[in-house]
Write a structure and sequence with these properties.
InterPro entries: Aminotrans_3, Aminotrans_3_PPA_site, PyrdxlP-dep_Trfase, PyrdxlP-dep_Trfase_major, PyrdxlP-dep_Trfase_small. Pfam families: Aminotran_3. GO terms for molecular function: pyridoxal phosphate binding; transaminase activity. There is one protein chain. This protein is of the alpha/beta class and about 450 residues long. Helices cover about 40% and strands about 15% of the residues. It is built from 15 helices and 17 strands. Strands 4-12-11-10-7-5-6 form a 7-stranded mixed beta sheet, with helices on both faces. A 4-stranded mixed beta sheet has the order 1-2-3-15. 4'-deoxy-4'-aminopyridoxal-5'-phosphate binds near residues 121, 125, 210 and 245.
Length: about 450
């Protein structure tokens, strides 16, 4: 079948039958899918119409080792052939899950030493809230139930994860939320202290934060932020959970995002980069101290478990992925290419009348659009989505964030990015920004 005909057929079926995640339904119904991808190789994706594009967000911040890696496919194939699936419920186990748990204990920050596996980030967050509350039940303080999170945070879409998500549009989407969640200003340790005092420290189970906020517009914490919130949590005996779903496994130029701040969490959520998207896997890690409480005080069953907790193929794929991250020096590459990425963003910012506030940590970066660079005043109608469209036409996929009065482009290219690919990304982006800048009437400028 010719690809134009196939595209039309698939596009119609897509509109009729496929309810897309986090997608404008209206836009889907009007235009059909923008891209129908057929394959990927390295930092690029290819589509049915014969176009190719740099995957500037590693798809969903996850394809860290790049697309089309045959060694990953072979690893999955061998594991599926040998033991595609067996349960980890009750006391059943298997080598891939055991080896991965031990590997994670080896590389994780601080004293994190035990892991509960899930299938992704949202499940990891819900698991963290439940395990944190269960920990307090075991410790004889069952009234410690509240989970505090930050106003610009994104923690996923399961009911607990949605309830913890600070970004209001995600919470407003559904009629009611899980109880015992509250929010504090994204950047203010003082606000965390006030909220704890207001709620009563004896009712607070945990505080959760992303080391670098990603999906909500890519926000880096102010200097000293994490050290301060660690000490506030310690002062009130509150657990600190870091949500490293995006930041773990090299994305920020260190193994884990929190490593930049020399802080040790009590629990850590991960997903995405653990397998680079070659399989669905996430998890929550607990410190040895927390694990010890579970070991010493649990009498019944740990009544929390997903069918795919510790999926053998996913765990084997994760081990292979981490081997690649380490053997190819991808964490170091993320650090170097991250500096390169920021340099390029800064030069686009300097050249352009509308680009501003370039920032990055490792290969997580952002660029904003403003009407006035002095006051940071925004355009009434955001420009970032227009730049995304112009970039896509020229062969670069990136994402805009416009909720919460933002007008931001976010980037997280694969950790395998070369210098040449990075300069290609910059030159496409520069052209796309120029193309949009040209459309702005001088009066609006
Ligand atoms: N936490 C963070 C920080 C995330 O960025 C995401 C997804 N972007 C999630 C949780 C949810 O993960 P998932 O989509 O795998 O459920």
């Amino acid at each position: 079948m010719n690809s134009e005909v196939l595209y039309r057929e698939l596009s119609e079926l897509d509109k009729k039958h496929f309810l897309h995640p986090t997608t404008s339904i209206k836009q889907q119904q009007e235009n059909g899918p923008d891209f129908i991808f057929t394959h990927g190789k390295g930092v690029r994706l290819f589509d049915l119409k014969g176009r190719s594009a740099i995957d500037g967000l590693s798809s969903l911040w996850n394809v860290n080792i790049g697309h089309g890696r045959e060694e990953m496919a072979r690893t999955a194939y061998e594991q599926m052939k040998t033991l595609a699936y067996s349960s980890c419920f009750a006391t059943y186990s298997h080598e891939p899950a055991i080896r991965l748990a031990a590997k994670l204990a080896d590389i994780a920050p601080g004293n994190l030493s035990a892991v509960f596996f899930t299938s992704g980030g949202s499940e990891s967050n819900d698991t963290a809230y439940k395990l944190a509350r269960h920990y307090w039940i075991l410790k004889g303080e069952p009234e410690r139930k509240k989970i505090i999170s930050r106003t610009k945070s994104y923690h996923g879409v399961a009911l607990g994860a949605t309830s913890a998500t600070g970004l209001k549009p995600f919470r407003d989407f559904t009629g009611s939320l899980a109880p015992d969640f509250c929010y504090v200003d994204h950047f203010s340790p003082a606000d965390l202290r006030n909220k704890i005092e207001e709620e009563g420290p004896e009712t607070v189970a945990a505080f959760i934060a992303e080391p670098v906020q990603g999906a909500g517009g890519l926000h880096l914490g102010p200097e000293g932020y994490f050290k301060e919130i660690r000490s506030i949590c310690d002062e009130y005996g509150i657990l600190l959970i870091t949500d490293e779903v995006i930041t773990a496994f090299g994305r920020t130029g260190s193994y884990f995002g929190i490593d930049h701040y020399s802080v040790e969490p009590d629990m850590m959520c991960f997903a995405k980069g653990i397998t680079s998207g070659y399989a669905q896997l996430g998890g929550v890690m607990l410190t040895e101290e927390l694990h010890r409480v579970f070991i010493d005080r649990s009498e019944g069953t740990l009544l929390h478990g997903y069918t795919y907790s510790g999926h053998p193929m996913a765990c084997t794929v994760a081990l292979k992925n981490l081997e690649i991250v380490e053997s190819e020096g991808l964490i170091e590459n993320a650090r170097k290419m991250g500096e390169e990425m920021l340099k390029g963003f800064r030069s686009i910012e300097a050249e352009s009348g509308i680009a501003a506030n370039a920032r990055a940590l490792g290969l997580m970066g952002a660029l904003e659009f403003v009407k006035n660079k002095e006051t940071n005043e925004r355009f009434q109608s955001p420009l970032a989505p227009k730049v995304v469209a112009e970039a896509a036409k020229r062969g670069l996929i990136c994402r805009s964030v416009v909720f919460d009065q933002q007008d931001t482009l976010v980037f997280a290219p694969p950790l395998i990015m070369s210098r040449e690919e990075m300069s290609e990304l910059h030159s496409i982006l520069e052209d796309a920004v120029k193309a949009v800048e040209k459309t702005i009437a001088p009066a609006a400028n």
